[in-house]
Each structure stands twice: as C-alpha cells, then as structure tokens.
Amino acid sequence: MLRCDLSCKGEKNSHNEFIIWIENHENEREQIKVHLDETISEIKGKIFNGIEPKKSQIYHKRNKLQNQQTIRQCGLKENDKLYIIYGQNIKE
C-alpha cells in the first residue's frame, strides 16, 4: 500500500534533488523525488498515508536506515532502490 502524492513525483530540479525507488514486501514499487537534506522519517511521510512512520523500516543494500539520517548521510544516489517493511510488529 505505497502512496505517493503527485508533488513528490517529477523531473530532477537540481543537483540536490533526484528520484529514488521504493519497494515493499508485496513487490509494489513507487518512484519518489527526494532532496539530499530530507530525513528518512520525512521520506516515510511521503510514502505512507495514515501509517505511523515508527511502524516501518527502510533498508538500502541490506542496511537499515535510521529515521534521523538524511539522504546525504545515507549516501543515496539517483535511481537507488530502497526496501520498506511495515506493520504492527515493526519497531523503530
């Protein structure tokens, strides 16, 4: 149940913004536009509607990303793929 507002989709606007892919455990995929200074928690807010960000985890290349980390700190690049898991049993 990935959900991305139209405002987070679009073309690359600057060197600090680019597109990444989000995939969940149901193999649903979405593209979202991110900014290097956005946090993982903010990215979760773009993806979910009505699901608490604390009830989800995001992984990149098998590494769990922390909510307070920025896209820059994670070293993410254009077209990188992130995997998100969510549910009642997930803890931050």
Automatic annotation (TrEMBL):
<dbReference type="Pfam" id="PF00240">
    <property type="entry name" value="ubiquitin"/>
</dbReference>
<feature type="domain" description="Ubiquitin-like">
    <location>
        <begin position="18"/>
        <end position="85"/>
    </location>
</feature>
<protein>
    <recommendedName>
        <fullName>Ubiquitin-like domain-containing protein</fullName>
    </recommendedName>
</protein>
<dbReference type="InterPro" id="IPR000626">
    <property type="entry name" value="Ubiquitin-like_dom"/>
</dbReference>
